[in-house]
Amino acid sequence: REVDPSPNVKAAMEEQTSAERERRAAILKADGEKRSAILSAEGSKQSRILTAEGDKQSRILAAEGVRQAKVLEAQGQRSQTILEKQGEAQGLRITAMGASALDSKALTVLSLESLKEIGAGASTKFVLPLELTKLFEGAADYVGYSRKAPDRQLSEVKDIENALGKSEDILGTIPTAAEMQAELDAIKEEADEALQEIKADGIKDQMSATQPPKELIEPKE
């Protein structure tokens, strides 16, 4: 036989059932909002960590690039200075060796040629680092219309080396293209090794290394 409760009992039971449903819905809603807030905060935290790591890596790589650029620039300036100074020394030595082989007659001819070039210019005033009478006396000696002056004694190679030094001592060791390229390759290799070390110590996966918050662990019933 079925028991039919009174209307008051039915109303009370329905009210209790509705309240229980509302309570459960409120609990589920609050729990969802809590989980969403926790996940949002955790995501913001991981985003800040990764952003900071990225900025750090960027600064390190930029500083390393500047350092390598300065090293290469200094190396290039050093090689350029060495080659320029060696070229100047070689030019001076060649000039000295060439002048040592000139006798008085050759020097007189060169002086007259220089005077001719000066006179061919458009200027009307000239500044000469010598007396014209000395130059004309040398020319007269050369053509045989004046007293005979003793010719200039030619220098021996050993005398030149005693006065100027050996060519190896003056010029030094000039680096070849292969040696300079090898040095640049060594610098590039050091830069690559430094870059690999930076990458090895770089950004790790913080997301995989982070344990889930305790609040997200399902409670045991």
UniProtKB/TrEMBL annotation:
Sequence segments annotated as region (Disordered): 1-23, 198-221
From which source organism is this entry? marine metagenome
Q: Which InterPro entries match?
A: Band7/mec-2_domain
This one is known as: Band 7 domain-containing protein
